[in-house]
TrEMBL record, chains A, B:
This is Pur operon repressor. The keyword Transcription regulation applies. Residues 4-73 form the Bacterial purine repressor N-terminal domain. Homodimer. Keywords: DNA-binding, Transcription, Transcription regulation. The gene is purR. GO terms for biological process: negative regulation of DNA-templated transcription; negative regulation of purine nucleobase metabolic process. Residues 109-235 form the Phosphoribosyltransferase domain. One of its GO terms (molecular function) is DNA binding. It comes from Vagococcus allomyrinae. CDD domains: PRTases_typeI.
Length: 271, 271
């Protein structure tokens, strides 16, 4: 039975949102709704305009027999800035300050709605690049990686500091922790990354950059390629940072353990 | 400027999908689209019918001045079964078998589309219950928790086996690992769970149930309430399991390390 336009628009919107960065043929939708391709084409035109007006993203049209549509989630710099400004305020809350100048982030990194927005912001930056995998280190980087991975339609891989039997064979590297100057070890399951993969590195917090540098080393070991690095928050670091090129959504500028105040500003993402 | 129905339907669908288990007033939509409440009401009727027909979920209507609509994601048992059947096949792949009879799951737990579906399936089971937090243990439970958390609109909290300075003060419990009978320790940041919270426990894999039992202990320490337990996969366990009531999506039945074969069947979720 033919499906009405209103129903098609609702279901197509859902389907597209749930399949970002995926090429979907017009034939697929035409069959799904027992409708003519010309009607589907009109529907997609309406969705394309709405997604553009509302800042949801781009609906790419690929012409030809092997063509179709592809939804690319995108968030405008203004929208991203608004979300990050809100985060700056929340991060500056006094009771977030932990001994040693660390900042408590676990509550924020457990909020599904916030993670969705953070995922959209980070994925937006790499929307035009081919990403085969999103890499992060356990544990607090995982929610960020998962959110980004969803919006890029690429799997995520988790680097671990402790070996686990359930990972199978692993490849490990040693790295120097930037802030403590200690030598540490991290490893990744051997089968989790193919040679030549284009990898995006994300993490929750960067101080000296040692952990991120360790992941760079792992990417080399796997003969894969680093596409970019984005961290949720960075803190101003007095030493020499081992990582130069990266994006951060937030920058923890001044931590005063005496007055228990934190100053948080938008990060390099907006530069 | 008044927004046309087609555009309203597309944008409302997106908004509802991104805000599950959230009460949204008709006034909010009326303002957003500069449209009359009666038109919004009609739109919601169309969305409600489509969501029902397509198996997306329930659009609840709450009448009165403080009312509005609430989107409850739901997946039918048939849809869930189909997804789980596909997973049984993938889990039975020969090269997943690891030494000690463990099964390699990390690739599946890094696929965003699969996690979304798993999240929908688990969240569906608890759609009528009040859930304040989803709890899991680091590391591999995190992707499951995050996916479930999104569809229930409840934050997730991560229990850790290793203390980290970035967690602040923690509460810890000792527990007996069901399979190895060793005594281990797990802890949770003190500020991450409020007294009286209703908690759903999820994890990737359950053998003897010791880890899940540890989380039960933590929930008691926090004077919170356990609502339910669901694991992605369980394995048949020869000893006496310390956990009785739980759901599993998958059950790893026979692991033959000699012939390197695994038999995986749907879990107790479907019973």
């Amino acid at each position: 039975m033919k499906v009405r336009r209103s129903e098609r628009l609702i279901d197509m919107t859902q389907y597209l949102l749930e399949h970002p960065h995926t090429l979907i043929s017009l034939t697929f939708f035409a069959k799904r709704y027992s409708s003519a391709k010309s009607s589907i084409s009109e529907d997609l035109g309406i969705i394309k305009r709405t997604f553009k007006t509302r800042g949801t993203g781009i609906l790419e049209t690929i012409p030809g027999a092997a063509g179709g549509v592809r939804f690319i989630p995108e968030i405008s710099t203004e929208q991203a800035k608004e979300i990050v400004d809100g985060l700056c305020e929340r991060l500056s809350e006094q009771d977030r300050l932990l001994p040693g100048g660390y900042v408590y982030l676990s509550d924020l990194l457990g909020e599904p709605d916030l993670l969705r927005q953070v995922g959209q912001i980070i994925a937006s930056k790499y929307k035009d690049q081919k990403i085969d995998a999103v890499m992060t280190v356990a544990t607090k980087g995982v929610p960020i990686a998962q959110a980004v991975s969803y919006h890029l339609n690429a799997p995520f891989v988790i680097v671990r500091r402790d070996s686990k039997i359930t990972e199978g064979s692993t490849v490990s590297v040693n790295y120097v922790s930037g802030s403590s100057q200690r030598i540490e070890k991290m490893e990744l399951s051997k089968r989790s990354l193919k040679r030549g993969s284009r990898v995006l590195v994300v993490d929750d917090f960067m101080k000296g950059g040692g952990t991120v540098n360790g992941m760079k080393g792992l990417i080399e070991e796997f003969e894969a390629e680093l596409v970019g690095i984005t961290v949720f928050a960075e803190s101003t670091f007095s030493g020499r940072r081992v990582i130069d090129e990266y994006n951060s959504l937030l920058c923890v500028k001044d931590v005063d353990t005496h007055t228990k105040t934190i100053k948080v500003v938008p990060g390099t993402y907006f530069e």
